Structures are given as C-alpha cells and as structure tokens.
Amino acid sequence: EIAQVDNSWLEVREQLEAKKQDLKKREDRLKELDELKNKVIEENQGFKKEIKILTQQYEALKELDEQKTHN
C-alpha cells in the first residue's frame, strides 16, 4: 500500500509539473500575442495618420481643380 501512495504522489507531481509548464507556455504565448496586438495598434495609428493627410491633400487638390474649372 505504501508503494501505491508513493506512485500516486509521483504521478500527481508529474501532472503538476506538466500543468506548470503548460501554463508557462500559455503565458508566454499570451505575452507574444499582446506584443503583436500592440504592434498592430501602432501600425493602425500610422495608417490613420496617413489617411488623414491623404484626405486633406485630396480635398485641397479637388478644391483647386474646381476653382480652375469655374474660372
């Protein structure tokens, strides 16, 4: 019976270590995904700025063109 208790203890310890390793991998993956998310957010902000500038340029050029057409 003592041998069974020892085996059970070892099995539970192995399960515990496996779960700890799995949790560490998951936490590392979550960190990677969070970093990726932040990078994409930064890139999106850059795109939004570019879109704003291009929209302003478009509006200004369109207005100039319309003024030329009316004159």
Automatic annotation (TrEMBL):
It comes from the Eukaryota. The keyword Coiled coil applies. Residues 13-64 form a coiled coil. Keywords: Coiled coil. This is 2443_t:CDS:1.
